Input
Amino acid sequence: MVEWVAWLLRTVAEFILPFLKSWTWIPWYTIALLHVAGALIGVISVLAMFLIWLERKVSAHMQDRLGPMRVGGWHGWAQSIADGIKLLLKEDIIPAMADKPLFKLAPMLIFTVTFMSFVVLPFSQVIIVSDLNIGVLYIYGISTITVIGIIIAGWSSNNKWSLLGAMRSAAQLVSYEVPVGLSLLAGIAMAGSMSTVEISVAQAGGIWNWFLWRCFPFSFIAAGLLFVGALAETNRTPFDIAEAESELVSGYHTEYSGFRFSLFFLAEYANMFVASALVVVLFLGGFSGPIPIPFVPDVIAGPFWFLVKTLFLVFVMMWVRWTLPRLRVDQLMGMCWKYLIPISLVNLAVIGLWVSLSAAPK
Amino acid sequence: MFDGYYNAFWFLVIGVIFVALNLWISSLIRPSDPHAEKLLPYECGEESSGTGFVRFNPRFYIIGLVFLIFDIETVFIFPWAVILKGAGPFILVEMVVFLAILVVGLAYAWGKRDLEWIKLPTRWQ
Output
């Protein structure tokens, strides 16, 4: 599937590009961008497949068993590919009285929105699709559209439990947007800019420059709140009451089958990656490595450190999932409104005090 | 000025094309055999009664309202955070006053038990 998309784009570029170059209304950089976007779609698909396999292995080893071992030979590395192909081959069942256009729209909306967040992730100072000067606000705003997608999915399924699961999930996501936003603000205040590249550059120079320790312990608390909020935003345990696989069947994606179902999971794992990347950019230095490595150019060291840190945080998310029990929905909402929001407000005020009294940028 | 959003727009287009393309490929290779029983809503094996569009608790609406207020507050704090570095205590105090006004709102909602999952009535209305 991924190779076909890449082949298609290459064919388009090689045979149609010279023809299109005479049409000045499609500039050449659009073609280049389409290549980049196609490549990123390939990366996301591979990433999601890898993370699903990793989750199964991590959960298995934490439960003292082995996980997938057969498919593809070495530790079942091809298990996700087999699962992806299987889901493509499943029948696409749309329930009898479901709202068909909305039913089809919901997974597309959720996946597209998650894919759009990849535009501002800084893999290095120059390797970024688009260094928007409101990078962090862009991700914050775009990720709220996922809530609409979830409500549409639950509503259009014509299933009472899907609707209730979707409403609960939307209530949870929407509640946890507030402490996430306030923690993002703490990071932005320390950097003085919303652009992800500028925030990463402000933490350059080594592990002692990271925002995690800049205003200890308040920036540490902010990073912790952002991580907990990210867990809640991506519907991961301990906050996955909405899709609790052992309790509510599947919540809002009960009635989906085949590729539409796999879109929800692609979006979930890509969302985990984006959320971890946001924590890394704001508090853990972005693409700035903890120690300077000599002789390695920045275009290689940048993505390397970014990916190592982000994948480590994704691993921590999986680790937390298979360690902690699930919170009940009233505990979850109570914790957000009564604990996380007051703590993050106080945190923001203290970090604001520290930043406003520190030296002004030249 | 809107330079970077050009890329974001094409990412939107590519996302839609990716989904549509894969669904089309899937439609070529998957079976399609609809029976009436297969298309019924799933209720753990029971037969469902009534339509799926049930009434839900209005507490979701209250949560949405309180979220809306705090989200607008967060949006107002974004520009402040960008210019905060080294700007002195005056604008900090200004923002703390703004946050304090909203904290009063949060305290009211908390005291009136609107933030709890099961709302019990308060003696003071």
